[in-house]
Amino acid sequence: MTISLKGKRALVTGSxxxxxxxxxxxxxxxxxxxxxxxxxxxxxxxxIRAGIAGEFGVKTAYDPADMTKPAEIEGLVASCIAQLGxxxxxxxNAGIQHTAPVDAFPVERWDAIISINLxxxxxxxxxxxxxxxxxxxxxxxxxxxxxxxxxxxxxSAYVAAKHGLVGLTKSVALETANDGITCNAxxxxxVLTPLVQxxxxxxxxxxxxxxxxxELDLLGEKQxxxxxxxxAQLGELALFLCSDxxxxxxxxxxxxxGGWTAQ
Length: 263
Ligand code: NAD
What we know:
This protein has 8 helices and 7 strands, in the order βαβαβαβαβαβαααβ. It has 263 residues and is an alpha/beta fold.
């Protein structure tokens, strides 16, 4: 099946790295123009932006909006519309992690995780919906997690935010069910990105084991399939959710988690 997104404009938050970048590349590969967002070295980001434009022959732009700041998120959606001519697809992907027992969880980290991993999606969705409704077509994809469906110890803020994001997904799907718009969540298991590399390195240091051993240890603890999902594989799932074949798939959470949540 060939999916064409030619003429569609996709905004992907947190797309300077990891899963967001994989999804941006998959959508660009199908012809969508891409608004990139996220932090990082500006020369590196410009290389990513120009690289996607050159490789796939699509328009690309970049906006450094901080997902903790509602006004900047509104500005990001406005800048997508101004620079690319519209906003047809929103992928809410930016996210951070912090692990600590709930009674020792730094309040500032709790607030940051809730705002970046949950509230930012509320802000981008409310800003983008009017344009999607006017166009009579839209795709909203929220990158939740296996932790949007089940919990792990020491991840209270992350688990709360991701469960919240799955809930937000369902409400938005109901409110847009007859507007040509779908809203779904993707729930990955382990993906080897900088966010997870930090957890592997911490595990290796804490247990005095090699990074390779820490990787297997991390996978073995939760995920029956002891290998990582790739950002490119998640990009293909996001692309499918943008296709016409997926026009009645809405309000659901799709796992790509190596069997994690089947247990
Ligand atoms: P990553 O660290 O590689 O990428 C995170 C992206 O978010 C980066 O582009 C970063 O610059 C951006 N970002 C962080 N804070 C931001 C802010 N305040 N404003 C704007 N951008 C910001 O991480 P990743 O693993 O690719 O994670 C992407 C998403 O996937 C997250 O929501 C994460 O929770 C989710 N996820 C990851 C995994 C995994 O195993 N890696 C599993 C399930 C879900």
